[in-house]
Specification:
It is built from eleven helices and 13 strands. It is an alpha/beta fold. The strands form three sheets. The chain has a seven-stranded mixed sheet with strand order 2-8-7-6-5-3-4, with helices on both faces. Helix 4 (112-119) links the parallel strand 3 and strand 4 (124-127). Helix 3 packs across helix 4 (112-119). It is globular and about 60 Å long. The relative contact order is 0.17.
Length: 354
């Protein structure tokens, strides 16, 4: 760090994204991206907006906001569009956490929650998962603070039911609960309908995974109108033009192409089932994932060694050094051909170490 770096950030540990190496071609199963390109409609509408890049985008993203509201069964005023769902999560940390209102989230979850808390200078509490990596809702019921839960959780892929989320939300109507649904489209039920019933719930989603737009950076939050107004206040106090016009157009195209979206989600689910069965046949233990990744370990090789041997052979997966999960690897679900190659390489590695 330079000598000019603010003292308030001296202990900040930044979020570490998945590897993006350029030295060779990899089967890239480490960052939960879609293996499929954006829909043709998304590409077409985005390209049309390229000619207008000399103009600022609509800061309210009116057309896209209306489309997001429509597909989620809410009103226009219940939606905020953001630069990836990370941005709306950060807005929530800024708006609803302070020295008197800590952030509360699982100790094994999306790594950015801790970073958001630290960069915003707010206290936080990490709640341990159960031994089977599930979230114990009762551990959050009597705690005071703003709750952040990824559902399905990352990197485990395990999900809470909507009834469990509702129990948490209604247990204390004077605190905010944020449900991060980045992976909900891969076979789980959204908590969005609860936002029509509870004014202390925020649900966030992203176009990065199921709509093949990780490179475009587009997400959204859904909540009571008063909450959305809070978040919009934060947005207009930081970056009013947070969603560029090409991204907004691509998002609209992605929403319009309903069949492409549903077909791709179905393929990912099928490929996940194939991967789970194949890994189990090789002796792996896996969590019950409802995301576009699986979380797997084997007693035949350490998690770190498997990660390294896969990398040597041109396959990237995500390994975490945290003691509780260091024997596991998170494996993004790619195309069927990619998953076949992955399984074959894993089989070869296990044969070699016999």
């Amino acid at each position: 760090m330079s000598k000019f770096f603010s003292e308030k950030y001296k202990n900040l540990t930044p979020y570490v994204p998945g590897e993006q190496p350029k030295e060779r071609e990899y089967i890239k199963l480490n960052t939960n991206e879609s293996p499929f390109p954006p829909s043709e409609s998304a590409i077409k509408l985005s390209c049309e907006q390229a000619e207008k890049l000399y103009l600022y985008p609509d800061p309210d993203c009116k057309e896209l906001t209306a489309a997001v509201a429509n597909i989620n069964g809410v009103e226009f005023d219940n939606v905020i569009l953001t630069n990836g769902s990370d941005e709306v999560l950060n807005f929530a940390f800024m708006a609803y956490c302070d020295k008197n209102t800590p952030a509360i989230f699982p100790n094994i979850s999306y790594g950015f929650y801790k970073v958001f808390a630290e960069i915003n200078g707010v206290p936080y509490e990490e709640i341990p998962l159960r031994s089977d990596f599930t979230i114990d809702v009762d551990e959050y019921i009597n705690r005071k603070g703003t709750v952040f839960i990824a559902n399905p959780n990352a990197p485990t892929g395990i999900a809470l039911t909507v009834s469990e989320i509702e129990r948490l939300v209604k247990s204390d109507r004077n605190r905010i609960v944020v449900i991060d649904e980045a992976y909900v489209d891969f076979g789980w039920e959204s908590a969005v309908p609860l936002t029509n019933k509870y004014d202390n719930l925020i649900v966030t989603q992203t176009f990065s995974k199921s709509r093949s737009m990780a490179g475009a950076r587009l997400g959204f939050g859904i909540a009571d109108k008063s909450i959305i107004n809070d978040l919009i206040t934060i947005k207009y106090s930081t970056n009013p033009y947070n969603v560029n016009r090409m991204t907004a157009a691509a998002g609209l195209g992605a929403i319009n192409d309903k069949k492409y979206f549903s077909d791709n989600c179905k393929k990912i689910i099928e490929n996940r089932e194939y991967t789970v069965k194949s890994l189990k046949d090789l002796g792996f233990t896996l969590t019950n994932s409802y995301a576009n990744f699986v979380f797997a370990k084997t007693d035949k090789i350490s998690g770190k060694d498997l990660y390294l041997k896969l990398k040597e052979r041109g396959v990237l997966v995500r390994h975490f050094d945290k003691p509780e999960i260091k024997e596991y690897n998170r494996i993004t679900i790619g195309s069927f051909e990619q998953m076949q190659k992955f399984i074959n390489i894993v089989r070869d590695i296990l044969e070699e170490i016999k």
